[in-house]
Design a protein that fits this description.
Blueprint lengths: L24 H8 L5 H15 L6 E5 L7 H6 L3 E6 L2 H10 L5 E4 L16 E7 L8 H11 E12 L9 E6 L4 E6 L6 E7 L6 E7 L2 H9 L3 E9 L11 H10 L3 E8 L6 H5 L12 H11 L6 E3 L4 E3 L2
Parallel strand pairs: 1-2, 1-4, 2-3, 4-5
Antiparallel strand pairs: 5-11, 6-7, 8-9, 10-11, 12-13
The chain binds S-adenosylmethionine.
Amino acid sequence: MPTDRRPRSPATQRPAASTSWDPLAHWYNGWVGEGGSEHHRLVAIPTVMRLLEVRPGEQVLDIGAGQGVLAPYITRAGAGYAGVDASPRLLDLARKHHAGAGRFMVGDARKLASIAGLRAASFDAAVFLLSLQDMDPLEPVLESVAWALKPGGRVVILLTHPAFRVPRQSGWGWDEGRKLVYRRVDRYLTPLPVPMKLMPGKEAKTTRSFHRPIGEYVNGLAARGLLIDRMDEVPGHKATAAVSNTRAENTSRKEIPLFLGLRARKLKEPLDQERSSGGRPAPGPDRSHAAGGATRRCFSAVDPGRYTPGRGRRRWSG
Ligand SMILES: C[S@@+](CC[C@H](N)C(=O)[O-])C[C@H]1O[C@@H](n2cnc3c(N)ncnc32)[C@H](O)[C@@H]1O
């Protein structure tokens, strides 16, 4: 692996993207702590590690690494760790907490190829731990991760569940008649930048999160030859509904997931429709039928005769 450049002091280094959490670095570090928040330790990190299936000797790239909470888990599994984040301050804290646990590099997730110290097709796995939903736009980030992964490499994404936890557009409610806690969802299909007020009190600062329906992630990955082979929907570790019915709260906690975990694998070879079908449309079902078409799209991604991943879009052979 090439060596990292010596980091400049965070006071003199500018954030690498406007979505950086640099102004919130010290608050975020206090909230997460050196060993991770409760959410991290009890739910988010175990989910990511289960999906990653890290093997000794592998190289893992943590994109949107923040103050490096994942680094010790990866190195304890015997793998090499590299963390990238747009915030110089968060990475400075990462180096303090986890010196020796890997390399930390300031950079923009949308332009991984421009980070000195990263090489194309050099990582066995990449991970977005609660970070992809803070990056925008999505397409160059997915393009970048496909660039960084070895053929056959995997990318694991952990998000707050886009279908149930739409920031500012969903919430808990109490149904008195049925004595149950329900989740209300006001909007889902329209992608939405959402201002998030953090650091309550007079020093409140705003960051932005980007809501996207799940299809944006699935189709965005597939368009770059990253095919999903695992999806986990994970409940939180404790009830968050503000009602005084413990049984109902526990049921809603167990039934309505907090996180969505996705794992995708980079195709070993680009699928070449010309080579596999001689340029002729392959026989298949009528895709003009909406439901049949949708089903076919899902499964065609693994059928070399019918699907060609392109840069930024899907192309069809027939
Ligand atoms: C909610 S924090 C998650 C950090 C860490 N993974 C964790 O779980 O504690 C989101 C992170 O994404 C980073 N980020 C946002 N946009 C970015 C970009 N374009 N390139 C690199 N990092 C970015 C932010 O600076 C921030 O550290």
